[in-house]
Write a structure and sequence with these properties.
Elements: H1 11-21, H2 31-38, H3 53-61, H4 76-81, H5 83-100, E1 109-116, E2 128-133, H6 136-153, E3 161-162, H7 170-185, E4 191-200, H8 208-217, H9 222-232, E5 235-241, E6 244-245, E7 249-251, H10 261-270, E8 279-282, E9 285-292, H11 299-313, E10 317-318, E11 324-328, E12 343-344, E13 347-348, E14 350-351, E15 354-357, E16 360-363, H12 369-380, H13 383-391, H14 396-412, H15 424-441, H16 447-454, H17 459-474, H18 511-514, H19 517-523
Parallel strand pairs: 1-5, 3-8, 11-14
Antiparallel strand pairs: 1-2, 4-9, 4-10, 4-11, 5-6, 5-7, 8-9, 12-13, 15-16
Helix pairs in contact: 3-5, 8-9, 12-14, 12-15, 13-14, 14-15
Length: 526
């Protein structure tokens, strides 16, 4: 790994110093402002903020005993073992913390564990993701406070913001994006330009002063605002790599990855980033697209300029090398070379034919071959687990459970986005992965018999069920992407007297669009 030198014992200190250096030009929070706002706290904590001893006891019992914690003395196993005794004093500490908006020092310390983004990592600057391991008691307090945060934030959240929020899953974000993409590309005259934005070290660069202003502008309860900011201010951290640990350093900016509050803080920070073009945000991932029959249309460039301006105002840095553009165009009149390059801060954005967005591989030809190849390759790397379990004479039932968790989950991830667009050959390629695994576990049985004995279904059947269930959820008016269905609603005069199905298939020009999620589900009257 670059910058590690010959002695790996110094690497934790090197990495910790690098993390702190990210925020060198970001000012610490204005403690005078915090002190001023503290005067507006009510004398007693509001009733909804009071935590009961029973709820604390329940939270203590749910702690995973073997999960890592930053507490050197109070282990998770010990907390769970003595939950009955600890519930009352911990409940008192949590309520006192909420009432005074004061955070115990131990709750503000993180053990940072770098997780490689690629194997092996080549650079500490770009190839490691810092995950913060914090106190289990801090997580309990965070969980209670996050409930109050979400109760308020749900009324102000951007409708295009997904992730780390109930009812705003990765699958829904991808379905909303894919619907706009496939519908726009149905007209061969359209040039669809997609911008995949990457924010550099986004969580680490959160300016607490800016975050405070957004808490206040969105009228969060004062206890939520002050407690959240005090939880972030003047945090300490050390880095652990293998058995080596760094010295403790203090940070005056950022929101730790691995905490419960981290994603909430960033969602609030980015909530006011809105564009005139169709877009989705998944925490710190931003994707937008423009549609026009004019190759010189500059709407995506304008959106890129707006994003750059937002970054400048919010102390974020847009990573030009990792930000990409993809062009989807099936007409014959223009080539990609006829379309002006996107520029960010004077730098050209690289154009790519394939891009992995939130774990799904999209390609400029709008086929799913690249994604199918990707998931099969990823799943195939885990065959050895099934082989080894079988050789160790683990029961077939347990091996099937492991298969479902480690391999089948890869083959079904966000499958409503791509299931309906698969070819027969692609369906068969995916099914072969399950066939191979069952052949290892039940070598004497046919695939059909192995399915019966194991209690599994064919993957295509499962994907169809998952797709149907997701569509039924979206039909609920409370679903975050329910409004996408508005363009498919039938006029009352066109409704069948024998059916109360309220949607009609679009007049699609291509099978590509007709086989995308929404038209496919409506065609099959899910």
């Amino acid at each position: 790994m670059r910058n590690s030198g010959d002695d790996s014992s110094g690497l934790p200190d090197t990495y910790n110093q690098f993390l702190i250096s990210i925020t060198e030009n970001i000012p610490p929070i204005d403690l005078n402002m915090i002190s001023h706002l503290g005067r507006y706290l009510p004398d007693s904590i509001p009733e909804p903020f009071i935590v009961s001893e029973q709820s604390v006891h329940n939270a203590l019992c749910k702690i995973k005993k073997k999960k890592s914690t930053s507490e050197p003395v109070l282990s998770n196993a010990l907390i769970v073992e003595f939950a009955d005794i600890l519930a009352a004093p911990i409940c008192f500490i949590v309520n006192s913390s909420f009432r005074q908006c004061c955070i115990p020092r131990q709750w503000k310390h993180s053990k940072v564990v770098p997780i490689p983004k690629i194997h092996p990592p080549a650079s500490i600057e770009s190839d490691l993701r810092p995950i913060s391991v914090t106190s289990s008691l801090a997580k309990i307090a965070e969980n209670f406070m996050c409930t109050h945060f979400n109760n308020h934030f749900k009324d102000v959240i951007d409708c295009n913001q997904f992730g780390s929020t109930a009812g705003r899953s990765t699958t829904l974000a991808l379905l909303k994006f894919a619907e706009e993409l496939y519908r726009s590309a149905d007209n061969s005259k359209n040039i669809v330009r997609i911008l995949f934005v990457d924010l550099s070290k986004a969580f680490d660069r959160v300016n607490h002063n800016i975050l405070l202003k957004k808490f206040l502008s969105n009228d969060f309860p004062m206890h939520v605002t002050l407690w959240s900011l005090m939880f972030l201010s003047n945090r300490s951290q050390h880095v652990t790599i293998d058995s080596n640990s760094s010295s403790v350093l203090f940070s005056h900016a950022g929101t730790p990855q691995g905490t419960l509050a981290g994603p909430n803080n960033f969602k609030l920070l980015i909530n006011d980033l809105e564009l005139e073009l169709p877009y989705i945000k998944y925490v710190d991932d931003l994707t937008c697209l423009s549609t026009s029959d004019d190759p010189c249309n500059d709407s995506l460039q304008c959106a890129a300029n707006d994003i750059t301006s937002w970054c400048d105002l919010n102390d974020m840095i847009l990573s030009v090398p990792k930000t990409k553009e993809m062009i989807v165009h099936f007409g014959r009149h223009y080539n990609n070379s006829d379309i002006p390059s996107l520029l960010i801060n004077g730098n050209k954005i690289e154009r790519v034919p394939v891009f992995k967005l939130l774990g799904i591989v999209f390609s400029s030809d709008l086929s799913w071959q690249h994604h199918v190849d990707y998931i099969i390759k990823k799943a195939s790397k885990r065959y050895f687990v099934i082989y080894n379990l079988n050789r160790a004479r683990i029961s077939p039932e347990d091996i099937v459970t492991v298969y479902c968790s480690l391999i089948r989950s890869i083959l079904e991830y966000a499958c409503p986005v791509w299931h309906s667009g698969l070819t027969t050959a692609q369906n068969n390629d995916i099914e072969r992965v399950q066939k191979r695994c069952l052949r290892i576990v039940y070598p004497e049985l046919s695939y059909r018999d192995a399915l019966f004995v194991s209690g599994l279904e064919e993957l295509a059947t499962r994907r169809e069920t998952i797709t149907r269930n997701i569509f039924l959820d979206i039909k609920n008016p409370n679903n975050v992407i329910h409004n996408v269905l508005n363009k498919y609603k039938s006029n009352s005069c066109h409704l069948s007297t024998r059916s109360n199905y309220n949607f009609k298939s679009p007049q699609a020009k291509t099978d590509r669009y007709m086989n995308s999620f929404f038209p496919y589900c409506i065609k099959n009257k899910f």
